[in-house]
Amino acid sequence: MRSAGIDLSTDPRKTGVATIEWRRDSAVLTSLALGADDDNLVALIDGADKSGIDCPLGWPSPFVDYVVAHRAGGQKLTVPETRRSLLLRTTDRHTIERTGVRPLSVSADRIGATAMRCAALLSRLTQAGAAVDRSGIDGPVVEVYPAAALRIWGLPHQGYKGPTSTNTAVRDELVRRCEAQMPWLDLGDHTALCRTSDDALDAVVCAVLAGLAHQGLCEPVPPDALPEARTEGWIALPSAERSGQRFPTP
Q: d(Cα 16, Cα 7) in Å, to the nearest integer?
């Protein structure tokens, strides 16, 4: 089984991509790179059983309704008592409650620009015949969020992004602890790039999560959240009890 990870950025040069081959008792990182345009990403997804994308796959439904109403003239548009429903998707609120980690708002933060690129990518997959399922339950892609997964695994999830010496030290510690906690994950010759680039490191985490999702080792989407997950996207969170040193098998 092959999984891929995409740390998506508006800038193709900063987009990290990784591929993992899952074998009988190990998961081997076979490729890791920085720089991928949409053609590269389509090819990467086509060549994997499941691809994890670190980017919202949709927008909050109330936000979409709000914008549509505004475009229509907004005569009956009212400001809700709380803007939380406009700012956060159902999966964002679930992730906060589950992990304490707050995803960026796709409707109010800069991640929205990256989501526009992601939406175009999903459109290309659909046009090519792929059955894209934004909930991640079926189809070739699943939404992932490295920071939340790292928090569930008890690993450093903050402070490793950036070029400063402090960021580098945290990133080094994160890679070291990943190797110790997940001895079945073979980084091969790519350890140095993981330590050098947070984009590359996130891509590896995305690929791991995609592999876990493909094997049914992520927390299921709550049944009452499934309609929203199909349209807004859903962050796949790893099952905490299956995240130890033992090789993750169903």
A: 5
